[in-house]
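Sequence in, structure out.
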Amino acid sequence: MNPGDSIVVAENLTRKFGEMTAVSGLNIAIAPGEIFALVGPDGAGKTTTLRMLCGLMNPTEGRCIVTGLDVAKSPDEVKDHIGYMAQKFGLYTDLTVDENMNFYGDLFGIVGKEREALSNQLLKMTRMEPFRGRQAGKLSGGMKQKLALMCTLLHKPRVLFLDEPTNGVDPVSRRDFWAILYQLVTEGLTVMVATAYLDEAERANRVGMMHLGKLIRCATPAALRAELTEACYSVTSTDLRKTRTQLETQPGVVAVQPSGADLHVFLDETKASITALAANLTFDHRKISPSLEDVFIALVKREELARAA
């Protein structure tokens, strides 16, 4: 993608905290109207990246361009065009849904009939109308996230940055939240979401996979799955712990990960045969299509093997 056509651009983005590098040389370009998921475990650098893109933290090196503006040079102007939802619920728990929205409307300078129309539209879209008189502290986790989203959208941002918005939220609320995001994108919003849920990242147009502060891959979910050269197998046995220990020492086995009641085994079939391994170690197996979680694990293991070589 041409960075000049992008609404969010990170160029060689680096952030250090003393001797520790939280984000290292990150390059991203996000198109208008795209849902971009930044995924990785805790400590991968996702939150730090979002904070730099929002102007809440200065990079040690590199620069951020958001809505055509250099974030370091025009932080206040950039904030007029973006919405940022942090991990922690940051609204006032003793205020009602309506009172929180009115407070944030005052902060954004949205008043009168404009605020009333926007509030009603957002309440309807999120199905929060029946709860507008309830205190925020008495809302469920999913409702709190919807309220935070509504307050973030009151000033009609062009880009929405979401930091693990469904962390700790039940599956039904997660589904509802993503349905709202899809609707917002059809109305012209661009969304960048940081998440540790790989199944959630499947819903994005493109996915950037982060590990130890570095972007190790960036592509569509389908392209990422197609990139996996290792074969992926589901393995079951009477003693999974023993089978895992045995498999991890076999040539050609790139990674072995627990997955529910079985193991997911990533195999370089130029070096080993699953049939031969099964005969020697006594386990059942079937070939499966890898999920994004499988892809991420395999890519991380590949990176680790490359560093160790």
